[in-house]
Amino acid sequence: MNSWETVIGLEVHVQLKTESKLFCSCPVGWGGEPNSRVCPVCLGLPGVLPVLNRRAVELAVRAGLALNCRTASFSKFDRKNYYYPDLPKAYQISQYDRPLNGPGWIDISVDDADRRIGITRAHLEEDAGKLVHFEDGSGSGVDYNRTGVPLLEIVSEPELRTPREAHEYLKTIHGVMRYAGVSDCDMEKGSFRCDANISLRPAGSRGLGVKVEIKNMNSFKAVEKALEYEERRQRRILDKGGAVVQETRLFVAESGKTRSMRSKEEAHDYRYFPDPDLVPVVLDPAWLEEERKKLPELPAARAQRFAREYGIPAYDAGVLTAERELADYFEAAARLADPKTASNWVMVELLGKLKEAGKGIAESPVSPEGLAELLSLVVRGTISGKTAKAVFAEMFSAGSSASDIVRERGLVQISDAAELEGIVDRVIADNPGPAEEVRSGKDKAIAFLVGQAMKATRGKANPREVNRILKERLGRN
Amino acid sequence: MKIHEMTASRIAAGVRAGEFSAREAALDALKRIGEVDGTVRAFLRLDPEGALAAADRIDERVASGEDPGPLAGVPVGLKDNLCVEGREVTCGSAILAGYAAPYDATVVARLRASGAVFLGQLNMDEFAMGSSNENSSYGPVRNPWDPCRVPGGSSGGAAAAVASRQCALALGSDTGGSIRQPASLCGVAGLKPTYGRVSRYGLIAYASSLDQIGPFARSVEDVALALEVMAGPDPRDSTSAPLPVPSCRREPPPTLEGMRLGVPAECFSEGMSAEVEERFREACAVYRDAGAELVEIRLPRLPDSVACYYIISTAEASSNLARFDGVQYGIRSGAGEGMIEMYQQTRAQGFGPEVKRRIMLGTYVLSAGYYEAFYARALKVRRLIKDDFDRAFETCGCILMPTSPTTAFRLGEKTADPLQMYLSDIFTIGVNLAGLPAISINCGFDGAGLPVGLQIIAPAFEEPRLLDVARFFEGRTRHHLRSPVLGPGEEARG
Fold it and tell me: Cα B170 to chain center, whole Å?
């Protein structure tokens, strides 16, 4: 049996975070009545002309910079001609041979191995509308609300080798785009979409095999699953000496399989040509330099800095920087509390509770300042670590501050030596057996006695102090 | 003098001075249309209610002492590819039958704000593709000087309406000569402004990189007046030039002493009729007698302009006209038989043969494998043609040429031979490819009494100079004052 190498390239469509559409002043939105965000321009009515949204260009350039792309000093728009009812002009305004962003790259990391993935280009284009098939079967309509929404199409080089890498690449692009503030990247709302190209070639060969394009994948997991399926399907064909057909295939989430949509023979000739209604985009080098400076710190750089500056493990730094809001949260807390403790609390307690509640970091009921206050109560010995977890749970559900909860519930830790000595003496008196065991050198019983002291104080005793006094009383020092 | 015989400037002055009302001007124009348009057939649709309502608003402004605008009460006809809110606009095509525009074209809004009164929509070659007006889905327009002859095209209705005194002013569009050639064949003044001078927003596109809206009138002064109102940057058109509008209505210079006017050697070898050549040489003599220096210039790529034009314009048209697919508006055929059938049948039934021919040509030249050989090459030739003009303007201030190699031809004479029809645009097409301003004015008549047009071309954005030179000619001649004989009960001449 031959050994095959998988070659994957991804096309990602990112919806840019503009107020209005790419070529008209209609608002960009989600949901709402069909055709409630349309005008003659985005409807492509006879006689209208497109006018480029400056903000979209700014965001696209920023996205390109974040992807290490070479920004084109001269760029233009082209028409991609094809017929479909959701495309009101019967052409899409896109960029063909002079994209706004030329070659770039991003680094991805799979199983601790870093790989640099080339980006061919990232260009601006307008979205199409949406066909709506009436439930009663009486026909179909077109909702043009999405028509003309600005998209950035990011095309990768065919340099991804496994479905896992493809998944990681998408996650990285997703993080970078959100960090750069160019897109919400919400897959459910269609503001982050992906098509994949995959082919197999004999291991070690440099040429490319016949490729298949896969569409209709609506999550990172779906992309990975679709590519895994397609990898298996193509390998089976090639192992039997067959030939893969160049075609577009649809991923069917329910079955986890792909099915043929159209073959190469039905492929379009889009007859690209420069759109004569638009003028070329020429960028001012000084402006571009300003944009470069304004670019926020991106996930990879921030993770490295977190590890260095806060002394947290690389893995933790990676988790904390996956989203800009999460990283911002952590940094705000880390400035007010011990960074390592803050990191553990954010990763374990906060992310756990958020996940349970199905909330994002932006919706966290506990602010970084609130978390820092809680941690300071532990450091000062006001409450125990165990109590702190209970307090945090209440902060999360009720939204009150740590100090209020501690005060109202009387949770202040007992660290006063005289008070604790009395408690310990009582525990020793009540449990002569275990006390004797400790005296005779059996350490195991210490934990039992500490537990009894904690029980007697309903968890408020400072366990470290209890431990110390017990040992002292039972002559173990 | 009847109002419909007055120029636009004269009508606006009369309305502003209270000499007569805008309503009277509109009623007189509508009466005139009723008398002669049965013969000329320039108007596709009239809007008497809208026109009278607009006229009344002008009269109220005059009465209340407000400025009614520089075009106060001037009856205006619009080529049927300009959008007027709430009015049907068809581009002379069956495919758009019944389609009402939901917005005003920028030029329409600007004219409206200046006091113009819109009478209705003027016939044209379907989607502005044609040189004779015979390609309209709604039948041809007749030349007012001889109703057996074509008025030229594609803005044939606009030229014929102005020539026959149905309106003082009309707006047309010029992609390869569609204002100048019918102006020439109908004996009126027609201006194609510099590409970018006038907003194209609301002009239903034929070839976007060539299309330009311009005015028809019976005097250069009127054309200049209309241009001042229409021109200027428009935030809705990215290709509109960010330049202020210069004053175009200056008194013509008393002498052209020191002005160099270029005459291309190539224009005498392109199938020009003897009488056109004669009138053209006479026109040149008018300028020479006034002190201008006539210099021979070379436009060596002029003969290539027809081929270049029919690649670029059809390529753009194939894309611009793709939206007429029966989905959103206009007619829809084959519904219920599937999407592809709907597309095919709608377009098969909706478009006429010339439009189909150009869509096919344009689709072909943009196709994979042919793009470089045709479209990309045509863009290079276009550049060379522009270079020719640039070089010529190093030695002259304006260029003189005939507008059309012949006077108006008979209906049906060239319909069987599209290539022959295409070649009749030889003198006008280069100007569009180079994006220059040019005007056609009446410079006399042939033996059959048909008007001959003189074309004047200026460097980009030099409309004031262009109009000076044109007005100078008008001041020295009386051709533009002649009127075709048409009226109630009059028989068409054979």
Answer: 9
